[in-house]
Design goal:
Layout lengths: L1 H21 L7 E9 L3 H9 L9 H4 L4 E4 L9 E6 L2 E10 L3 E8 L5 E10 L3 E10 L5 H31 L1
Antiparallel strand pairs: 1-7, 2-3, 3-4, 4-5, 5-6, 6-7
Helix pairs in contact: 1-4
């Protein structure tokens, strides 16, 4: 009986310790990737970003055969949206804000954390444009979700990198 009590107290103590430790981890981790596009015009890039039907030109998920995409009534500009179905999971993408230097959109999937994405477009000297993709995950307070934040860059970063490289390749070829 003493061993069971010690084991139970140890388990509760470990859970409390892990929960307290997880409170030190931010609830809104950010993943950021950057690419520099040569000989590009800012308007060409923002045109690709603000029109969801053009994402098939450069975004790997939109050009994949295993993904089904259904567009909303508005496909370009603020309020544009689409549903992305992959492995029976539907993710809703909607453009929430567009200004001269950025495009902001939300990704929402049932049972998943919402992700706010902002793509910043900045002109550089010598006919170059820098494109920054910043994704902010909105995590709950649960310890297992907070510890997920430690690895979120390694898990989701390559997808953002692939999308930016696809955009760079498409813009530089056209």
């Amino acid at each position: 009986m003493r061993a069971v009590k010690a084991l139970l107290v140890g388990a509760v103590g470990l859970f409390v310790f892990i929960t307290l430790l997880s409170l030190l981890i931010p609830s809104h981790p950010k993943v950021s990737r950057t690419v520099v596009i040569n000989t590009a015009d800012i308007h060409t890039i923002t045109g690709q970003l603000t029109d969801l039907t053009k994402w098939k030109n450069w975004h790997p998920a939109f050009s994949s055969d295993s993904v089904a995409i259904s567009f909303g009534k508005i496909t370009a500009g603020e309020g544009a949206s689409c549903d992305i179905v992959y492995h029976n999971t539907t993710t809703h993408l909607s453009i929430t804000n567009i200004d001269t230097a950025s495009v902001t959109f939300e990704l929402k999937a049932k049972g998943e954390n919402d992700i706010t994405n902002q793509v910043l477009v900045t002109a550089l000297p010598v006919s170059q444009v820098k494109v920054d993709w910043i994704a902010t995950a909105h995590l709950n307070w649960y310890p297992w979700e907070k510890f997920y934040a430690i690895f979120i860059d390694k898990i989701t970063g390559p997808g953002y990198e692939a999308a930016l490289q696809g955009l760079k390749k498409y813009i530089e070829q056209h």
